[in-house]
Amino acid sequence: MLRFAAIRILRAVLTIALVVTFAFLVLRLSGDPARSIMGDDASPEAMAAFRREWGLDQPLWAQYLHYFAAILHGELGRSMRGGGPALDLVLGRIPATLMLTLPALLMKLAIGIPAGIYAALHRDSAIDRAVMVTAVAGYTVPSFVLGLVLVQVLAIWFAWLPTGGTGSLQHLILPIITLGVGGAAVLARFVRSAMLEVLGQPYIRTASAKGIPWAAVVRGHALPNAAIPTVTIVGFMVGNLIAGAVVVESVFSWPGLGNLLVVSVTARDLAVVQCILLLVAVAMVLSNLIVDFLYGFLDPRLAEANSTGGH
Amino acid sequence: MIMMEKVSETAAGTRKNTNRRIPFLVIASVLWIVFVVGVALLADQIAPYQYTALDLPNRLASPFHPQHLLGTDELGRDILSRLIVSVRISVLVALGATLISACFGTTMGFAAAHFRGRIEQFILMLADFQAAMPFLILSLSVLAFFGNALPLFIGLMGFYGWERYARISRGLAISASAQGYAGAVRQLGASPTRVYLRHILPNISSTLIVSMTLTFPEIILMESSLSFLGLGVQPPLTSLGNMVGYGREYMTRAPWIMFAPAVLIVTTTLAISLLGDWLRDRLDKGLQ
Questions:
Q1: Is this model's pTM higher than 0.90 or not?
Q2: Exposure winner among A261, A264, A280, B208, fewest CB in 10 A?
Q3: Complex ipTM, two decimals?
Q4: Is B134 in CB contact (< 8 Å) with chain A?
Q5: A79 located within any domain
Q6: A205 inside domain
Q7: What is the pLDDT of residues B198-225, one digit of tens each?
Q8: Count of other CB atoms within 10 angstroms of residue A206
Q9: Most B-contacting residue of A145, A210, A214, A247 (CB-CB within 10 A), to test interface
Q10: Nearest-CA distance from B119 to chain A in Å?
């Protein structure tokens, strides 16, 4: 178990190092930031001063080492537009995003899991068909289309809710529904197929042949086994909490992290984009790590297999 | 007990059913996909106007206008013509990206299966990394910094989902290598490239095709989301997501600008997903 944990943590650290390298390469090699920030008609002296200030005049490998060292010290650069520390700017936006994504996550879990379980237990019933059709539709309708349709109907035609922006609890309703519906559909589909897989196993037939009431078979044997694959996808949703609302925030002009990302990308604000990329990577890696440990806990065979080097 | 019997009975029932006839929804999906691809291929022939042509007297005309069946946008450009060209661009991006992703992923998977050891570990680590990072965030940072030429955009979208092909082809290639036919060809002196491309690839192609069908709609959705944000396909070119993104500014006055492309995105992805699900259920139990 200890070996299992050590391997997982090492992999997590490696993944983050990979992201740092990726961020550095993509954002530095793709163009001259001095030119794109200052414009083509800036004087050469001003450009040189700008490059010196941001360390852009050093060789690339020196910039890379410097960058890595700076990140280890928690120094993530300053926003080239605003001038403040990029990390503060980014962290400042997280609460606004979580205000949307946390309730949306609860909505996904509260609708998706029961709907998936119910559909699997009543396979081919009218309700199963309805759940599946809704699930496929929820998965194929992109969030911006759903968001805009909701705005058109509820905000413009009926004028019940605001079209976008912030200020009151009512502003939260449409973005949360938009985020939640698609995720609930994906989750319902996933839970249904995980449940069907488990219900087809011989041990379920054995348990019910022994005369255990069906409800107890489902509760004691089917649900715990179906939970194992479900944990993966829920883990992905948790990791996506801080970055999963880019499109929806843009639809509703919500001042969260996603909005900051789109604006910074358009303005080529390197430090802020790198900072968001790293933060998202850390969130994803952490949630994957938790999922891995949960796996080991839910199914000890997996921890065994992994710690002996098997893949 | 009764419940259990019911489950297995109905399961057996549907299996017999699917073997006998193709469901109506799947036929409808195939017809719709054929229609969309036909529109994409014949875009220049069937578009009533040039997609950039302005008709300033008829700006923001509503649908069923005598000259513009689906109305016009804020510059008087014909929505139907723009829609037809958008379909072509969106299909082109999604098709190009799917092919790149499948080729790249399968190559990586074969490489992992062939070399094993360190190389395999490295490829698997890259695949884990790709699967763990939200693709939207990765591509947003790459796109804005490299600019937005169409070939580059298709190339970037070509990274979508490569890790799935890599994992599938690695697993299948490892088990195929252990089988008699691969060993026999190898004994006859075939090079590894020949063994993988001529003998193993045809044997695993049905699984790969099914997963291409399942990835295709996701690429359409990803492309339209990026274009919606204004960071994907750039004007004057137009794509379905791009039309929704720009139409959104005229939502109150001219909802039809974004309505038509939105409907097309949803119906097309729905049709391909339905087809993909059906193919997976029929051909490939292993992917489920």
A1: no
A2: B208
A3: 0.80
A4: yes
A5: no
A6: yes
A7: 888 888 888 888 888 888 888 988 988 8
A8: 12
A9: A145
A10: 14
